[in-house]
Amino acid sequence: MLASFLQIVGQNTRYCVIRNTFGRLQFATSENFHKILKALNSLAPDLMVRPGSTMPAKIRESTRFYPYFKDCIGAIDGTHIPASVKGRDVSSYRDRHGNISQNVLAACNFDLEFMYVLSGWEGSAHDSKVLSDALARKNGLKVLQALHNFLRKECRSDEFPVKLTDESSSSSSVLPNYEDNDHEPIVQTQEQEREDANIWRTNIGSDM
């Protein structure tokens, strides 16, 4: 539901295309679009802060970025940084490309200055695990509880294709010692992936 809404407003995608992409009827697509729009309108007065007069010069003075990114304050992404690991922990730090690395989450502003960095996760850790850890930390990233609860209520039946990968997580962000048989299965089924995602979102909501 949310994914189709974002594709419509972000890429000006027509309902007929959304219908084929997500396997929904055109009427249901329109109905879901207005549900999300109504929810965002109800959240806006209390949870969305209007941007101030200060705008990064690189955006204000560039026709490439302004006005499309006038409300952005930065960007967040994950990256893999090479790591030196020895012993039985090597397999945990092997990413999907076969390299030994850490999965690092970082946020920076438009002056390329880092505002937030979370390091220490193994290269095999899934991005959702790293993001979950960032959200759970005392001074970590924040999400809107009202929006989270709305998604749990309205989007419960949405099922999106899950790509099987060899990424899995078997620890927290602290670099722990593993026992030989403590690793989780590397490949999960779609049902397991959806169940893990539901537990992850529930934990985020309960911690807020």
UniProtKB/TrEMBL annotation:
Query: Which regions span the lipid bilayer?
Result: none
Provide the primary localization. Answer: nucleus
What the entry lists under InterPro entries is as follows: HARBI1-like (IPR045249), HARBI1_dom (IPR027806)
Q: Return the annotated region ranges for Disordered.
A: 163-194
Print the keywords alphabetically.
Answer: Hydrolase, Metal-binding, Nuclease, Nucleus
Q: Which Pfam families match?
A: DDE_Tnp_4
Which coenzymes or cofactors are required? a divalent metal cation
A GO molecular function for this record?
hydrolase activity
Where does it live in the cell?
Nucleus
A cellular component term, taken from the record's GO annotations: nucleus
Annotated ranges, domain DDE Tnp4? 76-134
Family statement: Belongs to the HARBI1 family.
What is this protein's name?
DDE Tnp4 domain-containing protein
